[in-house]
Amino acid sequence: MHADEVRRAMSPMERWYWVCDQLSPLNVVARVHVRGACTPEDLERAAALLVAEHPLLRVAVDAGPVGGLPRFTGAATPRIPVRAVDAEASEVDRWVREVGDVELTTSLDLRTGPPARLVDVTRNRGTADECHDVILTVSHVVADGTTAMELLRRLVELAAGAPPRPSRPALPPPEELLPRWVNRLPRAVHFVVTTLADGIAAAVARPRRLTPSTPVEPRHRRTRFIHHELTAARLAELTARCRREGVTVHSALTAAMAIAVAGSAPGRVTIGSPVDFRAELASPVGPADMGAYVATVPSHVEVRDTGRLWEVARGASRDLGRRTRFHQHLALVSLLRFMSPRSVATSARAVAMVDRMGPGNVCLSNIGRYDFPDRIGEWALSGAQFIADVSVSGCLVATVNTSHAALHWNFTYIDGAIPGERAERLADGAVRALLSGLAPTGTAVGTGTRG
């Protein structure tokens, strides 16, 4: 076995994601629109080169008979499958259907590997108007939103003829890269005390969680998808207003989601925020290094008046800032060694606890500005964005990135637990709350661009 191959037991964090995926699909999906001629052979060649560059794309997962002791082993056939879909010229949003009906509802076969697959949705093939929606689906066991976007960008580069690179080194699991002070006992005790104190404060404040309309058993949960985006003009308004109000775009989006969940009743709402910790590791890793390098921390966002977006956003910013200063995200990664179930068969208690009090009940995963190129070779690119499965971690997840001068805001939810009409109402309500904060008083607002 070469030094660049991954053959090891899963870490507690990886094992948790794998257990979730065994119960209900846990994928990360990245999509980009490509204008120009692209053949299936171009994508198959690029996919093969991408596998050669990343050791974690050459793995499968071996586990015991009850889903215990999962470990990475070699993929039986380390080749990313490419599925071709020929769409009608009028089906401009066919990619939304493919993501919602197939990619989010179907787990990758990690027993044989590799942990990725590719879809090419083609319109007007062989004409001057030929275009493609290229969709890359990766298992959350080995990828987060940033990873998926990086892999997709590199795949398009390779398909356009970029030279291949040598295989990247195989990195240890994320927990082994944490700063030493995180895992030391006094610091771990501090983390536990901080977490318990936060739990007591939350119990006193009684923040609202999104309650399922109908309980759905973990193995029957399937993710559905609603697509929104803000145009370049709206995005410019948002960033300028955030600067004036002294808050981040993430805080404004968090506030909008809290307002939508609160509805007409004031109170505190829990919104989870996955925090990227790549730069905080003892040996920092870059976005091109595969792995899931995010940990979700909860913010208890106070909504006193649903019409005061910026007041809510400032409270959300303070709460999340305090939690990251106390390194709660790193604490959660470290504490997973005590909390992650050992097997699928023994996961019921952990899954029930996450259902009852986990930070992902309503979640906003925002990777911020991602500079996906506007052109690669002869191709014009647009609409690069990512979407995430909910699996057993919550009810409603929003994924956000700013690319190609637009803010892509995708909502996923558990079908049945959140009926489609209710999910639409929550998603539209969040977008409307955000746009209301940008509009002059008394101005009617819509709900942005829908797909």
From TrEMBL:
Keywords: Acyltransferase, Transferase
The protein's Enzyme Commission number: 2.3.1.282
Keyword match Protein biosynthesis: no
EC class name: transferase
SUPFAM superfamilies linked to this entry: CoA-dependent acyltransferases
Ranges for domain Phthiocerol/phthiodiolone dimycocerosyl transferase C-terminal: 222-369
Reactions catalysed, as given in the entry: 2 a mycocerosyl-[mycocerosic acid synthase] + a phthiodiolone = a dimycocerosyl phthiodiolone + 2 holo-[mycocerosic acid synthase]; 2 a mycocerosyl-[mycocerosic acid synthase] + a phthiocerol = a dimycocerosyl phthiocerol + 2 holo-[mycocerosic acid synthase]; 2 a mycocerosyl-[mycocerosic acid synthase] + a phenolphthiocerol = a dimycocerosyl phenolphthiocerol + 2 holo-[mycocerosic acid synthase]
GO molecular function: acyltransferase activity
InterPro entries per record: Alcohol_O-acetyltransferase, CAT-like_dom_sf, PapA_C
Coiled coil: none
Pfam families hit by this protein: PapA_C
Keyword Acyltransferase: yes
Cited PANTHER family: ALCOHOL O-ACETYLTRANSFERASE 1-RELATED (PTHR28037:SF1)
Family to which the UniProt record says this protein belongs: Belongs to the acyltransferase PapA5 family.
Protein name (Swiss-Prot/TrEMBL): Phthiocerol/phthiodiolone dimycocerosyl transferase
Native source species: Actinophytocola algeriensis
